[in-house]
Each structure stands twice: as C-alpha cells, then as structure tokens.
C-alpha cells in the first residue's frame, strides 16, 4: 500500500452550497441575546482600548515632558487600571456569552436532529449506519462550536475595529491615520488573503492530519486481522512511512500556506515600525507634514494603536478554520438526514397517555395485503387476506425468510403496506399512534436492549410499574432464571459496556416488557426461539395465561407453541392460509 | 504530568527540531518585544531631542527595521520547523503505539470491548502529537523570554524585575497550571456526558422499532435530552474556566503595566531612568504577554494531552492475554483440528463453551450452527489462540496450540472474522495482506473463488481500484467477499470462516456456498454460519446450544 498517502491529500473537498451556509448562519437566532453579547463586548472593549491608550500616552507625556510627579498622575494611572479591569471583564463576557450561545445552538440542533430521527419510520433509520448517525449528532455538531463561539465575534471585530481605530487616529496624526486608512480599503483584500491562505492552509493541513489519523484508525481497526496474517509489523512500518511521506508533501503545501500568516505579520510589523520611524523623523524635523508640532502624547498614542489595528485580523486568521469545519459538518448533515432540520418550529414532545383505554380483545381483518422485500424486487405478500376474531389465539408457521416477521410488523404499523388491515372496526391507518400503542403489544425478532439495568429495560413496557410488578413480569418471562445468578440480579447493568446477554436472554427481557402491558392484541415474533425445552414450556404457559381474553398472533417455528393455539396459519406463495391439519388446543 | 513526562523520550528523540522550533519561537517573540521597546525608546528619544542636536538616527531605525524583518522570517521558520517536528513525532508515536498493541490484541476486558476504542486511541495520539506545538513550545518560549526580560528590567529599574516576574510567570505558568487542574472535573464530565449522549442516539437508532412499538419514544427523547443537557452544562463550565483564564491574563498584564509604570515614574522623576528607556521598557513588557495569552488558550489542550497520555500509557502497559511459551514446540505438518473438553467464559458463572469436543480431520469441511451469541465465534478464536481456553486443550495437527509459536499457528490457520475490515488501499493491497508475494493471477483466482471477479473486471482500474475509508466504495456484500478472497489467497491449510455469507443476497449466498468445496479443495474448513447448507456442502454439521456442542442431523 504505497500510494495511499499520496491519495490522502487530494480527496474531494465538496463545496457545500450557499443555502447550507445561510442555514448555518441563521442558527444564531436560537441564541440571539448571547450571540449579540459575544459580538458587542469586543467592540465596547475596542472603544475602551482607545481610551486606555490615550490615557497611558498622556501619563507618559506629562511625566517625561511635563516632569509631573507620579502622585499627581495617580488618578490617571488608577483610571488605566480600571479600564484594564473593565476590558478583562468584557473579554470574559464575550467569550462566555459566545460559548453559551454555541452550546445552546448545538443542544437545540441535536434535539431537532434526534426528534426528526424518531419521527421517521424505523425503516428510515434502518437504512442508515447507526455509527454515522451517532457521530453526526454527537461529534459533528461540535464543529459548530468554533463557528459561533469564536469565528463570528472575530469576524465582526475584524470588520469594524481596524477601521474605527484608523478613524480615531486620523485627527490626532493625519499621516498615521492615513497609513491606517490606506490599509483600510485593503483590509477586505487582506481578509480575502487571510481567508484564502488560512483556509487553504488549514484545509490541507487539517485534511492531511485527518487522512493520516484515518489511516492510523483504519489499520488499528483491523489490527487483529493484520496480526493473524502476520502483517502487523509491516503495517506499523507502513503507518510510519505514510506519515513521513505525508509530512514531506504537507510541508510543501504549508510552505505556501504559511505565507498568509507572514503577510499579516508583515503588516503588523510595518504598522509599528512605520509609525515609530515616521513619528521619530517628524520629531527630529526630518519630515514635516504638519502645521502644528506633534506632541509626545500624540506620537505614543499612534504607536500604541498600531499593533491593535492589525490584531483583530490576526485573531480572525486564527479562527478561520472553524468556519470551514462547520461548513463541512453541515454539508454532511444535509446528506445523512436528507435535509437540514428547521429549528424555528419546535414542538413539545408528546406525553405518553396513561393506560386508561378500556381493553378488550379486538378482531383483525386483513384484505388484499401486498408487500415487497426492502429492495423492492420480490413480493412477500401478494393480495393476501385472512381474518381473526377477537380473543382468538393463532400461530403463523413457515420457513424463515418467508414473511412472518414482515406480516407482524405490518400489523403493528411498523412497516408500510398496500391493502387493508382493520383492527376491530377501525382501519389500522386511522388509529391514533397513542391509542394504537396502548392496544397493541409487539415483540420483534431482534429486540434491542437499552443502556441501563435489566429492571429498567423491563420497565419500558410500563413506566410506572412497581418493583414488584417488574419482578413478576421477569418471573413469567423466565428472566429471573438467569438474572438471579448475576451478582446484582435485576439491577445488573446491560447493554454496551455492561454484561452481554445472549440472544435468548435478550428475548426474554423483551418478553417481560409485554407482560407489564395491558394490550388487546398481542403480536409475538418467535417468542421461544433459542430456549431450551423446559424454559420454553414455562414461557408458553405464561403467554397462554397472559393472552386469555386478548387476541394473540404468534409467529413461530415451534410445534409446541402451535399446539396450544386455536388456529394455525401458513404462509405460502405470498398468501396466508389456514394450515391443512388444524391443530386444536391439546391441553385445557 | 507524570504520564505526559513518560513520553519525553519521543520529544528527546526529535530534540534537534524541537529546540530549533523553540529557538525560532523565542526569536519571533523577542523580535516583537524588541520592536515595541525600541520603537517606544526611539520615538520618545526623538521627541526629547531639541532641533539641531545630533541624534543617532541610524541605530534605532536599523533596529526597528531589523526587528520587523526578523519577526516575519522567524515566525515563518518557527511554523515550518514546528509542524515538521510535530509530523515526525506523529510517525514515531503511531508506529510505537501500533507495535505495542500487536501482542496485546484482541484486548480483553469490558473497557476495551467498547466500539469507541479505536476513535479514542486515534484522538489520544493526535492530542499527544500536537501538545508540543500548542502548549510545550509556548511554555518553553515563555521561560526563556520571561527570564531575559526580568533580568533586563532588574538591571535598569530597581524593584521592577520582581513585579514583572510575578506578573509574567503568574500569567504564563501558574495560571495555566491552575486552569489545567480546574478543567479536570468538567473535562471528565464532558467525556462521560458525550458517551451517554452517543449511547442515547444509538439506543434511539437501533431500538427505533422497539421504541415505537412500546410507545416509548418520549422516554428515548427524555434520555437524550438529559444527556444533552449534561453535556451542555459540562462544556459551559469548561468554557467558563477558559474565559476566566483569558480575562485573568489581561488582568495580570494590566496590573504588571500599572506596577511598572508606578515604579518607573518614580525612578524617572528621581532621574534614575531616562524617559526613552521608561517608555521602551514599558512597551516591551506589555508586548511580552502575547505568549502568556497563547499558553492560557491552550491550557485545555495540555489537560487533554495529559489525560490522553495516561490512557495511552495504560493501554500500552496491559499484559498480553496470550503469550508464547518459553520453549515453544514445532508445529507439525497437517491440517487436523481437535477440541478436547474445552471450557471458556468471559465472565464467571456464565460459560460460553462448556466441555466442547470436536474432531476435524485434515481436508474435512464442517459447519458450526447455533443462535447468534451461542459461542460459534469463540470456538474459532480459541482455534487461532486469540484467547486461551480455561480448561481443555485445542490442538492443530495434533499439537496443543498453546505450546507453539503464535506466528506459526497463524500461518497454518486463516480466519475470516465477522468484523474483519476492508483496509484503506487498493483491491490488490487488500488481497496482498493474505499473501504478500501473490501475483495478479493468484489475486484473480481468489476473486473468482469469492465471486467478486465479475465486479472487479467492470472497474476501470481493476485490481488497482482505490477503496475509500472502511471500503466505502464497496457494498457490504462486496466488502465481505473481498475479505473472503483475502483468506482464500492465504497459504493456510486450515480455513476458519465466521458467517462468510453475511451481507450477501440469498442467490449469491447459495452460489458461494456451492462453490466453497472447489475453492477450498484440499484444505480443512470450519464454517460458522446461519445460512442454509445444501447436502454435501460440508461433511458434518455441529450445533452449539447453551455452551454445548453436538452433532446435528440437519
């Protein structure tokens, strides 16, 4: 792999369009007051700086030319101290307000992205890599921090302060003022220069570093594979060689890119040196453009202001890459989420209703159901139809991959379908989300366990369930059978970073959630998969008891499950048909 | 700072470049300070000169021009040298970290199993790379410059040296140290909140169906909002500390200025200090605080680098889970695999494998089936000695795998693991990992066996096609087949395949499995799979259930 470092530099840069840039800048409205404070404070600080410089110049003038005693100058000296204190306070206010603004904006944006995600169908999220979504919401949104906390205040300061300083100096010393003002029309040019240079520098440098980090991460991710193929040592050398190769190439780019900071440095030095030489020569009478003699106070004031004229520009250069980073993040956000979220219309999260609804078993009638595989190439159901009366308990059998899970997901309105599904007297599509969820309990084939304890996970079935109720549900679903062996029992933390549960154990935890609910229709997908014979028998018993007086549809491979239901269906040729040998309830 | 200091050999190794960078940085800052000082001195001196009296114009004006030129050039050089040294350091650190990790992977223990290890480690190394440029360099500069400036002030102005010393070193050393300490708690809180937030998002994405079905989206939103609020609070605290630091530097600079002014004015009226010198010294001192500002600004990076150093050090010092024995035995020729009463578990009381027995003769093909999480992958990783069995023996060619050199074992057994990646590089680069000296013909044969040849031949660059990060230019199925081709290309006489057909559509899966016997002819094959196996594809099928392995009739 000799040439990956070479390819590293020339990746696509992807210019995000103007709409995205406008959307990004528009986010400041989420924290108007804070952004305003972070922008205004440096401007006020600039005004105080003028005052401070002129006071300092006058103190020195009075002491050196006027031979004034330091005690008589005390009020001015104290005022200088006071101004310095005030400016420090303003710097604090600006930085703190900028940070708060950025934090507020990031937090709102994250909430908007997450809300958008939850509002989409599960199929939408399933089509996107979860790692990419997590990295977008957690890491990439961070890129906006620099833009709002630092770049925006620096941009405004760089646009206003140099000009303002030049205008103030103009009446004091017209030539120096002019020197500043001549550079003033050039300032947009500097800014373009800085922008071009700093952006190019940071872009190539940041990208080179990112690529190299990417290469390192890539090899690190596959280090076990490399070790097993005996290639680890060779790849360690490769990482080093690539770093070195990249160093040489990057330095070539940086040599040019650093010129932009040299240009800024040049102007800053020119300002100070030019003012010092010009004012000095004026004092010596070697240059005389003035009608009145130049006082030491005026000369010192000009000298003190000179570096300050260029300081805001240097600050802007420092923070310029924040803008590029934010733009790149927004561009990726637009791609991953199809569109950028609109933060202006914020809706209150919907509160889940209590389970006040009267629970009765409901009938299920399916007609002309047509569904395709996710890639749209094959038909899973072709005009299928069947009906189940209320309180009936049925099993659906069929090979894996035939469409059992698809059917259950359609019945739970977790997947789009064509045709009609009627629950009771209402069309499935017309039922309010809240009511629907209260009336249907659904156990999928690969239930997710969430970060938290086993008890927390079970309690997701009903948030206000007591410890006792959770324990009973866990008992019924045979969760206690393994949980009691763990040191912390039901309080054991599971999920990433916790104890890993096997597929069968996870399934039982998810089943326990169902037992906490009070549904009219129960949809279970392979509830007894991965269970040994004894556990399966107990779980089947618990399901039978729970399903009494409710409608139950269970997709299964297990003949034992099929043996205890009222009716069995098969899926064949895209239809749902009653099994030929109808297995009647064997016991009770 | 102890952990950070343990990385000092790396800096020492590049000491020439770093010293040059520091020297140039001192020069840059010194030139800036000198420029301001000489300007003030010259200007005041000129103002005091009554017309007609000769004033040495050339010295000061040459100094002013010299300092400005020096500042431009040395700043440019400093940036270049500093970045060069940092990039060199980066190569050193990465190579070192990689080599330290090789004997230690796969890492055991909960903390290392988290998915964010790679990104954290990369970020940690990045933090260590740039710590010189952002923090150590400026601190060294401050030490040199501050000492010089103190000496100059002490020489000209009694009492001023002490005032300056307190103000300058307070701002550039004491204050940053306090900031680093103060930032530890919010820093840790931010890292924790960020991890919680990531978990909340992952729960929302991967558990979307469950959340919707349970009507628990509001709960997920609440969990997310809580984590997000924690993060916001922690980050705001960090920002507050940084803002206080910035403001304090300005205050330190201001107090120092006022103090020097007070002392200077007294000396001036007493005639001990001339006006030009007073102005020059004042302006020079004021200019020197530039470096304190940049140190304080990067104090948070110093803290981050310190934390990173601790983590990297801890990781590189973990004991390898598997070691070669002192007197290894030679691995005999042959391709048989035997498991004798093998027991294994990651946590006590929860065995993954319970007295597993398995006999596979050389050249035989057997399948392992069982629910996901039942331990199929564990059997394969014990075969490659990625972990050691807690009881029982694993044998390859009749020899206990714990008694042979790992490298020999790995040459004999090739594994297609579930998480094996496509590497950044070309298709050929990826294949050559399996066999570094393979020619194009070998590569093509392996691609054909993995049913990827048709796809590769449609690519304009063929084998030289560049694959982006994590193989993003390939579909999941194609990536899987490329990894498979890599395994088939290897010279190993035993091939272990863990879910080789995951990500493949049913037709390709069927074709692939029916080709398997031809593609692996003569080699021993262990295949862990969920796929349906047609008769004759493998000689035997074993089912793993609750840690027990038994012959399956299916």
From TrEMBL, chain A:
Residues 36-325 form the ABC transmembrane type-1 domain. Keywords: ATP-binding, Membrane, Nucleotide-binding, Transmembrane, Transmembrane helix. It is found in: Cell membrane. The chain crosses the membrane at residues 33-53, 73-93, 151-172, 178-198, 256-281, 293-313. SMART domains: AAA. Residues 364-588 form the ABC transporter domain. Gene3D superfamilies: ABC transporter type 1, transmembrane domain (1.20.1560.10), P-loop containing nucleotide triphosphate hydrolases (3.40.50.300). InterPro entries: AAA+_ATPase, ABC1_TM_dom, ABC1_TM_sf, ABC_transporter-like_ATP-bd, ABC_transptr_CydD, P-loop_NTPase, Type_1_exporter. It is a multi-pass membrane protein. This is Thiol reductant ABC exporter subunit CydD. It comes from Microvirga terricola. The lineage of its organism: Bacteria, Pseudomonadati, Pseudomonadota, Alphaproteobacteria, Hyphomicrobiales.
Automatic annotation (TrEMBL), chain B:
It is a multi-pass membrane protein. Residues 337-554 form the ABC transporter domain. Its main location: membrane. SMART domains: AAA (SM00382). The chain crosses the membrane at residues 40-58, 130-156, 162-184, 241-265, 277-296. Residues 19-304 form the ABC transmembrane type-1 domain. The keyword Nucleotide-binding applies. It holds the Pfam family ABC_tran. Coiled coil: none annotated. It is found in: Cell membrane. Keywords: ATP-binding, Membrane, Nucleotide-binding, Transmembrane, Transmembrane helix. The keyword Signal does not apply. Belongs to the ABC transporter superfamily. This is Thiol reductant ABC exporter subunit CydC. It comes from Microvirga terricola. The gene is cydC.
């Amino acid at each position: 792999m000799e040439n990956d470092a070479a390819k590293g530099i020339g990746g696509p840069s992807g210019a995000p369009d103007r709409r995205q840039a406008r959307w990004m800048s528009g986010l400041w409205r989420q924290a108007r007051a804070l952004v305003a404070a972070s922008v205004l404070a440096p401007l006020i600080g600039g005004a105080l700086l003028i005052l401070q410089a002129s006071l300092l110049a006058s103190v020195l003038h009075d002491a050196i030319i006027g031979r004034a005693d330091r005690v008589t100058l005390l009020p001015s000296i104290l005022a200088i101290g006071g101004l310095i204190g005030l400016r420090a306070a303003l710097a604090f206010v600006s930085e703190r307000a900028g940070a708060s603004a950025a934090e507020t904006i990031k937090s709102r944006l994250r909430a908007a992205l997450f809300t958008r995600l939850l509002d989409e169908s599960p199929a939408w999220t399933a089509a996107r890599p979860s790692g990419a979504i997590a990295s977008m919401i957690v890491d990439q949104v961070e890129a906006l921090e620099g833009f709002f906390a630092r770049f925006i205040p620096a941009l405004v300061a760089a646009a206003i302060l140099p000009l303002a300083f030049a205008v103030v100096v103009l009446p004091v010393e017209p030539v120096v003022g002019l020197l500043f003002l001549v550079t003033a029309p050039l300032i947009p040019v500097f800014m373009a220069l800085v922008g071009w240079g700093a952006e190019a520098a940071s872009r190539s440098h940041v990208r080179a570093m990112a690529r190299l980090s990417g290469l390192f991460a890539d090899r690190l991710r596959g280090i076990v594979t490399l070790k097993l193929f005996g290639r680890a040592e060779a790849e360690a050398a490769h990482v080093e060689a690539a770093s070195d190769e990249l160093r040489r190439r990057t330095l070539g780019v940086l040599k040019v890119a650093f010129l932009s900071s040299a240009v800024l440095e040049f102007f800053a030095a020119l300002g100070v040196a030019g003012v010092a030489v010009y004012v000095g020569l004026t004092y010596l009478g070697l240059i005389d453009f003035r009608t009145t003699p130049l006082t030491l106070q005026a000369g010192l004031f000009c000298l003190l202001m000179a570096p300050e004229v260029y300081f805001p520009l240097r600050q802007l250069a420092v923070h310029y890459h924040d803008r590029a980073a934010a733009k790149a993040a927004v561009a990726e956000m637009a791609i991953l989420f199809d569109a950028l979220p609109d933060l202006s219309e914020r809706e209150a999260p919907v509160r889940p209703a209590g389970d006040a609804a009267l629970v009765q078993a409901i009938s299920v009638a399916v007609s002309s159901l047509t569904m395709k595989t996710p890639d749209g190439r094959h038909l899973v159901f072709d005009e299928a139809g069947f009906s189940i009366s209320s309180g009936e308990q049925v099993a659906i059998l069929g090979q894996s991959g035939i469409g059992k899970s698809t059917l259950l997901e359609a019945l739970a309105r977790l997947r789009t379908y064509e045709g009609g599904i009627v629950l009771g007297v209402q069309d499935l599509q017309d039922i309010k989300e809240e009511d629907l969820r209260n009336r249907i309990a659904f156990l999928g084939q690969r239930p997710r366990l969430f970060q938290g304890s086993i008890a927390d996970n079970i309690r997701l079935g009903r948030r206000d369930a007591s410890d006792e109720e959770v324990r009973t549900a866990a008992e019924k679903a045979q969760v206690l059978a393994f949980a009691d062996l763990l040191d912390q029992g039901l309080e054991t933390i599971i999920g990433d970073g916790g104890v890993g549960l096997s597929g069968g154990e996870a399934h039982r935890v998810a089943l326990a959630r169902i037992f906490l609910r009070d549904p009219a229709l129960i949809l279970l997908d392979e509830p007894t998969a991965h269970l040994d014979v004894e556990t399966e028998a107990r779980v089947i018993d618990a399901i039978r008891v729970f399903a009494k007086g409710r409608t139950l549809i269970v997709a299964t491979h297990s003949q034992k499950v099929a043996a205890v239901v009222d009716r069995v269906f098969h899926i064949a040729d895209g239809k749902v048909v009653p099994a030929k040998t109808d297995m009647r309830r064997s016991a009770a | 700072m102890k952990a950070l200091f343990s990385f000092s050999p790396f800096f020492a190794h590049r000491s020439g470049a770093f010293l040059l960078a520091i020297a140039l940085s001192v020069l840059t800052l010194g030139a800036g300070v000198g420029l301001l000082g000489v300007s003030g001195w010259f200007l005041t001196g000129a103002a005091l000169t009554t017309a007609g009296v000769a004033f040495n114009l050339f010295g000061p004006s040459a100094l002013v021009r010299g300092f400005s030129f020096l500042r431009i050039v040395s700043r440019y050089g400093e940036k270049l040298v500093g970045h060069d040294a940092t990039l060199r350091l980066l190569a050193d650190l990465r190579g070192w970290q990689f080599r330290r990790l090789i004997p230690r992977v796969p890492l055991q223990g909960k903390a290392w199993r988290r998915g964010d290890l790679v990104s954290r480690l990369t970020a940690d190394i990045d933090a260590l790379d740039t710590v010189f440029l952002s923090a150590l360099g400026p601190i060294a500069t401050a030490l040199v410059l501050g000492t010089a400036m103190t000496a100059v002030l002490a020489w000209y102005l009694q009492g001023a040296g002490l005032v300056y010393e307190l103000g300058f070193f307070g701002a550039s050393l004491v204050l940053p140290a306090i900031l680093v300490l103060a930032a530890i708690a919010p820093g840790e809180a931010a890292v924790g909140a960020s991890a919680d937030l990531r978990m909340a998002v992952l729960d929302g994405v991967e558990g979307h169906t469950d959340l919707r079905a349970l009507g628990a989206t509001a709960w997920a939103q609440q969990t997310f909002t809580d984590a997000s609020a924690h993060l916001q609070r922690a980050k705001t605290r960090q920002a507050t500390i940084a803002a206080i630091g910035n403001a304090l530097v300005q205050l330190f600079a201001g107090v120092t200025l006022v103090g020097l002014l007070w002392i200077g004015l007294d000396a001036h009226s007493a005639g001990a200090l001339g006006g030009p010198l007073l102005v020059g010294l004042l302006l020079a001192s004021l200019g020197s605080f530039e470096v304190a500002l940049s140190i304080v600004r990067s104090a948070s990076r110093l803290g981050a680098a310190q934390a990173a150093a601790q983590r990297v050090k801890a990781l590189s010092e973990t004991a390898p889970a598997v070691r070669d024995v002192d007197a290894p035995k030679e691995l005999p020729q042959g391709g048989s695999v035997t498991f004798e009463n093998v027991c294994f578990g990651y946590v006590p009381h929860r065995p993954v494998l319970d007295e597993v027995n398995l006999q596979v003769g050389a050249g035989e093909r057997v399948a392992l089936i069982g629910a996901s999480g039942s331990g199929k992958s564990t059997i394969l990783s014990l075969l490659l000695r990625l972990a050691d069995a807690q009881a029982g023996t694993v044998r390859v060619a009749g020899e206990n795998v714990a008694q042979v050199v790992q490298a020999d074992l790995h040459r004999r057994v090739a594994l297609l693991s579930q998480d094996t990646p496509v590497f950044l590089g070309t298709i050929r680069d990826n294949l050559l990992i399996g066999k570094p000296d393979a020619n194009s013909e070998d590569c093509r044969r392996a691609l054909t066996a993995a049913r990827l040849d048709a796809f590769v031949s449609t690519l304009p660059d063929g084998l030289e096609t560049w694959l982006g990060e994590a193989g993003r230019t390939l579909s999941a199925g194609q990536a899987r087949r490329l990894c498979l081709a890599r395994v088939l290309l290897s010279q190993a006489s035993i091939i272990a395949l863990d879910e080789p057909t995951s990500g493949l559509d049913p037709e390709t899966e069927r074709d692939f499995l029916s080709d398997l016997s031809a593609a692996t002819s003569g080699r021993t094959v262990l295949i862990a799979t969920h796929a349906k196996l047609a008769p004759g594809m493998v000689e035997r099928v074993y089912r793993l259930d609750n840690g027990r392995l038994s012959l399956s009739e299916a």
